[in-house]
Amino acid sequence: MPRVIYSQAYKAYDFGEDHPFSPARHDMLLDLLAELGHSPVLTEPRPATREEILTVHEEPYVQRVESLGRGEPVADAQNFGLCTADNPCFPGMDLAARWLVGGALEGARMIAEGEEQKVLQLGGGLHHAQPDRASGFCIYSDLGVTIRRLTSQGFYVAYLDIDVHHGDGVQKIFYSDEKVLTISFHESGRYLFPGTGDVHELGSGSGRGLKLNLPLEPYTEGASYLEAFDQIVPNALEWFKPQILVVQAGADAHFEDPLADLMLTTRTYEALYRRILDCADRFAAGKVLFTLGGGYSPRAVPRVWAILMLLLHGWPLPEKLPPSWVDRWSARLSLNLPDRLHDSEAPFEPIPRAEEITRRNRQVCDRLQEATSRYWF
Questions:
Q1: Tens of pLDDT, residues 196-246
Q2: Catalytic pick among 26, 57, 128, 165
Q3: Considering the chain, what is the average pLDDT of its residues?
Q4: What is the pLDDT of residue 80?
Q5: Contact in structure between 200 and 175 (CB atoms under 8 Å)
Q6: b/e burial code for range 5-24 (CB count within 10 A of at least 16 → b)
Q7: CA distance to 57, 71, 84, 305, per residue, from 1 (Å)
Q8: Helix (H, G, I), strand (E, B) or coil at 246
Q9: In degrees, to the nearest 5, what angle opens at C-alpha 10 toward C-alphas 4 and 14?
Q10: What CA–CA distance (Å, rounded) separates 355 from 227?
Q11: In the annotation, is 128 catalytic?
């Protein structure tokens, strides 16, 4: 049975009531699973230590996070990406972020020691954090610290990022690392934060050819997204032969997400998760660590992540959602929530220029394959 890692301490990673990166998203998910009769058994992690954080993050940056978490003034905080609109400072921020890192580390430990094959870290996915600064709602890189732990133990790791934003922090940390393959599917940086993730960003030194980016056109629909996945991911994994797959499972490529413009539906996510689990079984001996990540539509996120949880456990996907859950959270959020797990068959109007968007995405895949072919063969 897959393991699910979570602690109530994760709720302390909270930038404030009006910030989109809200711990309420996880509350909605766990409440939905309970109403469905599928509450997962939760494993409590420990927070990462300061020494573990320093395997990725630089000392001056960590010192400032610690000081701000204690309520001490830091004159140059914004030079480190802290106390900004994206990354507001809050009491206890150092410990709160270390809890999320600790959850990912515990999942990696379970897999590395053969205790489990498939693990879901119910939080984290802080893929924008840089070694020397916070970025995009991310203070410490749970993914970076965890992958570095695995590679230090000799594992070759494939990192797959399906968040709508480019996984720039993880790519930067491992840009020259030959033990880490990174694959990021995201809306093109020409239109969306953080502005990186072009096809030509292939890595450096011994990591050259191991950093793969699929910058997709705005308004990319599910069929085009899955076509790109099928063209790139299985081939890359078959060539790299990872021992462990790490997945950042952001839900913000859904068409209702307010911060981006990809057009995935819940049905796309189901197909995508099934593909990822199949790839883990085929290319990584079934060993896969999922974290969550972005996702800012309360109408979509709990349903998308519930699909991941249900598929991971082999539990059935319900057609309808429990009315008690729908009514409770609709009232709490003053929002009309869907009463079905899946979006309708045609949940949005036809996309103008859909064929051109698909054609451009195919060109991106072709460019990426051409750019990497010299390194793969």
A1: 999 999 999 999 999 999 999 999 999 999 999 999 999 999 999 999 999
A2: 128
A3: 97
A4: 98
A5: no
A6: bbbebbebbbbeeeebbbbb
A7: 34, 42, 41, 18
A8: strand
A9: 140
A10: 13
A11: yes
Q: Cite the DSSP H helix spans in 185-300.
A: 222-240, 266-283
Half-sphere CA count of 147, side-chain side, radius 13 A: 33
Beta strands, E only, the chain: 3-5, 42-43, 118-121, 157-161, 180-187, 211-216, 244-248, 288-291
Cβ atoms of 28 and 302 within 8 Å: the answer is: yes
Residue with tokens 């539906």: 265
Enclosing domain of residue 111: 3-376
Token pair belonging to 105: 């580390």
The answer to whether 341 touches 319, Cβ cutoff 8 Å, is yes
Q: CATH number for the domain including 225?
A: 3.40.800.20
- Which residue's entry shows tokens 């699910």? 4
Residue 377 predicted with pLDDT over 70: no
* pLDDT, tens digit, 9 for 90 and up, residues 50-93: 999 999 999 999 999 999 999 999 999 999 999 999 999 999 99
Cα dihedral sign, 161-367-177-152: positive
Given its phi and psi angles, is residue 197 left (phi above 0), alpha (psi -120 to 50 degrees) or beta?
Answer: left
Q: Residue 67: which residues within 8 A CB-CB, separation 6 or more? A: 73, 74
CA distance 20 to 22: 6
